[in-house]
Amino acid sequence: MRCCFYGSSLSAPTETAVSFVCQDERLTGILHRPAQPAAVGVVIVVGGPQYRIGSHRQFVLLARHLAQHGVAVLRFDYRGMGDASGEQRDFEQVSDDIRCAVDLLMTEQPTVKECILWGLCDGASAATFYAQHDSRVTGLVLLNPWVRTTQTQAQTHLKHYYRQRLMDAEFWRKLFNNRLQLAAVTRSLIEQCKQAFKKPTAGPQLPERVLDSLQLFSGNVLIILSGNDLTAKEFIVVADSSDQWRALLKQARVCQKVLPLADHTFSSKVWRDQVAGWTSEWICLKKIK
């Protein structure tokens, strides 16, 4: 079955408010139904202190774009966020919420036989942790995945922030004109160096756990990175420092895209449109049956 429908003959998709239960708490979402639904659907997993609309309305616009191309989409608030009840929780505690969202999508849109999880930042990491446990999930779209540790954050700052500062003429002008507190800058740099080379704490760290989850997941993966974002740069630092990460990213089932000028939340319409286009094109290429 084809999963995408291009052309001007499409009827307008519909948008329906939905409410469903997860662990005795009530979640709220919007279900986007295509006029000609395909066998694949998308659940948008919110990241950070966000809710189902997204920064700059990105999740709304993405869902409408995909629905116009035949893909049913559910964007929702998990427990403690937006209009959902319950206590706020972090991205490592939302697997039940994601499962309930996938259940709802497939119940309300019976044509959907498989699901793609789409997540930004720690929403991407949450989706990765969940995907391996649900055979209905056959694809992941991960934007600027969150893999932060104290060590990787310091390494990223040293490689990208401090290196840029040292090459910036304005930095040196401020320094020679005594407009910078040299002692404070030096202390900050020394502290970053200490953190960058500090021995990690015992046990698997977040980058290793994300890697393990992606290795255990057998479906297709699209990774989209912003060029002007420290979270994305941190992901690159992590991937470049590990043979296992490099091997994973070279697999045929993994596709990477980079928007060189984009910020973390893709605040420009041009960037949001590119992300939506890449997402729909990737779904078509990977999910046509």
Automatic annotation (TrEMBL):
NCBIfam families assigned: hydr1_PEP
Gene3D superfamilies: alpha/beta hydrolase (3.40.50.1820)
Residues annotated as transmembrane: none
UniProt cross-references to PANTHER family, sorted A to Z: ESTERASE ESTD
Alphabetical keyword list: Hydrolase
Keyword Hydrolase part of the UniProt annotation: yes
MF GO annotations: carboxylic ester hydrolase activity
Name of this chain's protein: Hydrolase 1, exosortase A system-associated
Cited InterPro entries: AB_hydrolase_Est10, AB_hydrolase_fold, Hydrolase-1_PEP, Hydrolase_4
Pfam families (alphabetical): Hydrolase_4
Source organism of this protein record: Sapientia aquatica
Annotated signal peptide: none
Domain Serine aminopeptidase S33, chain residue ranges per copy: 56-185
Highest taxon of source: Bacteria
Record flagged with keyword ATP-binding: no
